[in-house]
Design goal:
19 helices, 4 domains, 5-stranded parallel sheet
Amino acid sequence: MYGKFLDGADPNYEEEGQEGVANMSGIQRSDVEAAMDECDAMGVDAFMDEYGYSWNNLRYWVERGKKSYPSKAVFGVAHRFLDQGAALSNDECNGTTARKKLSSLGFKIIEQTGLPQNLPARPHHPAESQVSTLPTNLILYGPPGTGKTYNTALEAVKLCDGSAHYPQTKEGRAALMARYNELVAEKRIAFVTFHQNYGYEDFVEGLRPVPIGNSDGESVGFHLQPEPGLFRLIAERAETGGLAVGSEPLNIADRAVYKMSLGEVADSASDFVFTESLKNNYALFGFRDIDWTDPRFSDREEIFSEVKRRFPDDDVTPNKGVVQSPDVFRNQLEIGDMLVVAKGNHRFRAIGIVEGQYEYAPRADGRYCHRRKVRWLWHDKDGLDVSELYPPKFIQKTLYRLKDVELNRSLIARLISDAVSEGAEGDPLPHVLIIDEINRANVSKVFGELITLLESDKRAGMDNALSVTLPYSKRQFSVPANLHIIGTMNTADRSIALLDTALRRRFQFREMAPEPDLLGLVEGIDLKAVLTTINQRIEYLIDREHRIGHAFFINCETAEQVHAAMRDKVIPLLQEYFFEDWSRIHAVLGDGFIREDMLDPPPGIEGDRVSSWSVLAPFNADAFDRLMGKMVKAPEELGE
């Protein structure tokens, strides 16, 4: 453990002892073993279901003999063996408290993402909504129009929520997409489409030019700076997501983080700044005894003017620290931003979240009269080396924002997680990366050295976990176990057989085939038979991977909409499939949709007549009957 979460004033900063833990509940070892016996008798699946505990994000287990049990569930159920007791629900039971109590009773707690091999009998109950706790690498493949993109949304929601019950109706699809969009807004789902020019620098990290400014704020050139790509960003969000303090979720992925000095390390007379700040849950700030509460000081120029007026003999410019730092502390630092307290330029000793606006609190000596309310989440009086948190190290500046691309948010998450003494389980929330058209890019080039890290047992926290040093930022990187990857692949563009072997070995593949049974009759047009006939002919002429999906027709409610789908979607796709070979398109569709005219050679040119094909407008009245090979009347019989 690196430190302790401070909840309210805590002048002594004492760690909670095991004796205090043991007395925080009346649970005894016999109660816990009774719950374990019940789990043995029921099987762990039935045990979890009976008492409403989720498999989602489960990573802490309690051992008895050669068996492992879910620690939070066992602790919660043990309460029903107390006198007049009742089992705690999933929401009522605190995972951190459970682990501490079980440990104090002599049980061994293990941390493992995924399922231990020594669980009590866990019968398989297949259900559409059941989700594995193991990392998912899944590719949905199939011809165009088979619902791959829609099903990625369903799978993503299922992985994030643990279940997904959305009927295949308009209302069900709308509800699914509403939940999907909520998860996107929470940044737990990210979406990207691969293309031929997509590369490692876009996906993992690359170098980007960043302007270099002088002390007056003018640009004097640029330098190349590592910038994270989409995959690194969502991996870091996945690793830091799911923290909680008390009952409040704590998402640190997108917060601005500032370095701040609380006192001077070399001056023991200023030690009170750090201790007083942590004791009273605020951050003290120096820089002259001037009250900045007046609303006009929301403008840096006003701060500059006031400093200049109060100290006319000082060499003051708008970019000097005496102006810039008060502006950052009063105006730029927002509620919700994080503070990392430095100890010199090479160590840091506290982390907190800003919770209040600027305050002026005059002191007798006129020093450190400015403050902001802060909830301190972690501290260590000796501090930790800053190189792992922020490789560029700190600079001699009281308060400034740290560069996101250099900041190791995963370390912040670990420190806070270890320091939390009370609160929610803190398990990382599932995150999903959706890669549309995954086969359009050179996958080996895009993933680079990270392709190995995608394997379930190579993920962070797994038995064979691996990490790599990224080439530009030089930071250690691993793929968290709670990051799931779902890809889609259009087989009309590229067969699975042509995929990179490394990719095929690390992903599961699920075929999304056309489903004619989802289609019915629309104003006398048998769409099920139409789709079946078209696909049989395409498969005969090309292969099964070039069939068309039910999505081309599934929203058609009138004959006019069916005709529009044929004219604007199906026929253009067939043109692409057959490389404008209209005779083969005719073999698929028959005579009712396209017409062949014969062109004579121009005057003075000898040659054979050639075909000229055109799409009929409108289609023949019996076009769909002709397509399906039904007997139709000759034109003269129809009175034409």
